[in-house]
Amino acid sequence: MEGIGDLMTGFAVVLSWQNLLYMLIGIVLGVIIGVLPGLGGANGVAILLPLTFTMSPTSAIILLSCIYWGALFGGAITSILFNIPGEPWSVATTFDGYPMAQNGKAGEALTAAFTSSFVGALFAVIVITLAAPLVASFALQFGPAEKFSVFFLAFCSFVGMGKEPPTKTIAAMMLGFALAAVGTDTVTGQLRLTFGSTELLGGFDFLIAVIGLFGIGEILLTMEEGLSFKGKAAGISPAVVWQTWKELPRYWMTSLRSCLIGCWMGITPAGATPASFMSYGIAKRASRKGDQFGKGEVEGVVAPETAAHAAGTSALLPMLSLGVPGSPTAAVLLGGLLIWGLQPGPLLFVEQKDFVWGLIASMYLGNIVGLIVVLTMVPFFAAILRVPFAIIAPIILVVCAIGAYTVHNSTFDVVMMLVFGVAGYLFKKCNYPLAPLVLAIVLGDKAEEAFRQSLLISQGGLGVFFSNGLVGSIMVLGLVALFWPVLSNFYSRLLTSRRA
Amino acid sequence: MEVGVAAFMALLGVVTVIGSLRVGIGWGAEGPKSGFFPFWVGLIVVAASLYNMAQAYTKGSRKLFASWSQIGQVLKVVAPLTIYVAAIPWFGIYLASALLIAGFMRWIGRYGWPLVLAISIGLPIVTYLTFEIWFLVPLPKGPIEELLGL
Questions:
Q1: Each residue's pLDDT tens digit, B17-50
Q2: Domain tally for chain B?
Q3: Domain housing B136
Q4: Quick one: pLDDT at residue A87?
Q5: Hey, is the C-beta of A198 within 8 angstroms of any chain B C-beta?
Q6: How far apart are CA A53 and CA A44, in angstroms?
Q7: Are residues B76 and B31 in the same domain?
Q8: Percent helix, strand and coil across chain B, each rounded to 5?
Q9: Residue A391 covered by a domain
Q10: ipTM, interface predicted TM-score of the complex
């Protein structure tokens, strides 16, 4: 039971006044970020990342990861009260959450959402506590070929599991790799793809890309829709909370199933959004009251919220233990680790015990604090959303610009942010996924390095990726994921032709 | 529009391929040369984009990308934002931000001057206190800050 001891050390690290304060600030900021359109978990963390350069890595990761938890919680508020998903993963929450609010049961819906978010997150943190050290110690034996195969699997699952057309996913992803390649070649130190421009020497920073693609792009989309927020009044009284809590254990089966779906989708980098939809769909089919879904059923709020949080939290497992983030926000956090001088991956568990276990302990505490904060402060957060968009929009633009500038203290980055913003808007309109693009920019250099080192070992033969059982099976899994759309299409055609 | 985006991505792919060819895509003393990886990546971008382009051409093009009023709305953000970004090196981020917020609130939100001024001047001050005083992160400054001696 070495893990328990490590976890206790982690709690000791977290339980200082300073870290608890950062935790609280992070959660509140995170909920605000989650509530506001245009500011999501990923770019909220990206904007604040430069502020943490001077902090100790542990405090910094506590602050930033709590922003992430807060954003996960915040998405539910807007979905239920305003029928506007603040985050993509809370779209499924609107299906039953908003009808509940319309029926005058906003308090119940919010309590159910927050509580199931908490349950989902807690489940995922327990999975991380138990599994991450094992995965990490296993991954310590990985050579370059194995490392590349893990990257390969991660990226292929985007193609196979995304709901966007596969060729668009591939195009967006490869564009990310190309952007990552710009600047200095990490293996040989040679400059490439800069075309003589001095601004491009350092390459494209993924933080700028995240702020532009997610922040500015989102504002443009919101502006296009010409949103006016018309929300239901929010209020949670202790009596309502108590009443809902008494009712919730009835849905333990839905809850458990959603936890498992969420963890699975979070670890394989499919992310929180498909997890919430899948969980909602399955709950609808499995529930006895399935035909009531969409009209304001508590179970229809429990299922997507639990899965979204489980996925969002467990996305940190591969980030910590393998150095492969499971979601865009995890990717930004991973970028943070690199900036603070920590090398993400299995060695983190050996060399930076305080950091890793401090982070894991903060996940437990952060989610408890988060639950309390959102339950008590809902009216305040709902009031923020009532601030008209014409005031919020320019403020968010300014915040994004400041965030982009502070990454390298360069005004050229602000220009790049604008370019990425317009690109993000166009990509979204044309149904290109942004998550694989961002992940490719973050991981591009590492994936390339692993690939080239493997080829170096094998003197150029691709056989190295199938040279032993482990790397071979990960690669085969990746190929299956890559060709999944083709395979499932073929299979369904086979079925229909047999029936005919 | 879809065709345009796909064509643009294909173009970026071609640029990547050309850039990779310049640094060498073959096998050198250090193993695969610097251009090796981006070369193939670029090729895949081109191939996937051409496919997307063909797809968009055959079915997607009849669908309206966005109505003119929607594009107008989007330009209402893009235009001031472009001016803002261009103004930062000259006026500093504080003055430019104040102007952006004030302009946006007055022009699109049609708010009264007291509220416009309160927010457009208040936010830069809050920003200054948070970034420069609390976190010691310097932001770009312009003539106004020089006058104030900050």
A1: 777 777 777 666 666 777 777 887 888 888 888 8
A2: 2
A3: 68-148
A4: 65
A5: no
A6: 16
A7: no
A8: 80, 5, 20
A9: yes
A10: 0.85
Mean pLDDT of A447-474: 76
Tell the burial category of A249 from Cβ atoms under 10 Å away from its Cβ (0-12, 13-18, 19+): exposed
Distance CA A75, CA A81 (A): 11
The nearest CA of chain B is from the CA of A335 a distance in Å of 19
Listed by number, the residues of chain A in 393-452 with a beta carbon closer than 8 Å to a beta carbon of chain B are 393-395, 397-398, 401-402, 405-406, 409, 411, 414-415, 417-418, 421-422, 425-427, 429-430, 432, 448, 451-452
Q: Which of B39, B62, B85 is the last residue of a domain?
A: B62
Instruction: Give chain A's domain count.
Output: 1
pTM of the entire predicted model: 0.79
Among candidate residues B44, B62, B80, the one where a domain is terminated: B62
| Cβ contact A309:A366 at 8 Å | no
| B28 and B92 inside one domain | no
Q: Are residues B128 and B85 in the same domain?
A: yes
**C-beta atoms of A409 and B2 within 8 A:** no
Yes or no, beta carbons of B38 and A425 under 8 Å apart: no
The reply to whether residue B22 touches residue A216, judged by beta carbons under 8 angstroms, is no
Question: What are the tokens at A287?
Answer: 């529930």
Task: Give the minimum alpha-carbon distance from B95 to chain A in angstroms, rounded to a whole number.
Answer: 11
Whether the predicted pLDDT of B77 surpasses 70:
yes
